[in-house]
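Re-run with default settings, no changes from the original entry. Doing this only to confirm the output is reproducible before filing.
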Amino acid sequence: MHINLPELKIVPTKTLVLHEGFDIKRLNKVLSAIKKDKIIKNPPIVAKIKPNQYVVLDGANRVTAIKQLNISHLIVQVIDYLSKDIKLKTWNHFVYNLGNDEYDRIIRLAKQSGLCFVTNKKIKIKNTSRKNITTLLRFINTLFALYKNKDFYRVLDNNPPISINKNINKELLIIYPEFKPLNIIKITKKKLKMPAGITRHIINNRVIGVNIPLDCLKSRTTVREKNIYLQKLIQKKLYNNEVRYYNEPIISLDD
């Protein structure tokens, strides 16, 4: 089968910037896996925003782990962020097991901000990103800080899921506004960040299972030599018929 692979390349880690924070729990899992396996399985998804700078769209924890391990280079998948094939969606957060005081603080902040519609068990943040992305982002980070250490998970729609526990105490569904790729580029250039787990990039032809050894990425050879190695590795996989194309969506139960 003939497959046109997306752009894969090895770049200096210092050229990779995040548009969102990292998730400390996931980061620790990623660090442990990298140290154990000694490979990078799945390239982070990035888009070029300057000649020598890429914004990380998916893979903030992997990039943070690599930087913490002082590894000089990382394999990435480079996409055209403004392509119609790239869709930017938003995760909403269902927060549960809130105490009465915690619940009241979040509701009070939402009402005082003037940026939210507040109803029973729901906070919907207004879509003001076109007007002042800096003000909106400052509020989102302040709001997230009130529950980031509590129990919450991501949901795709605007309806609260069924409570996990009958004794769940207070719960809230926080509905985040949708953003545009240009918003993400703008906040990145301003050196601002969103909280982890809000933006959701839907990308066609995501490459997984490249399995680049850490020894290659942290060696003292040049980035050009590392990319020559990468291309040879890809060609070998193609020659050995090891490349598979799956068009179906995937649900992972061990992330």
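The chain has two domains: 7-86+201-239, 92-175. The radius of gyration is 20 Å.
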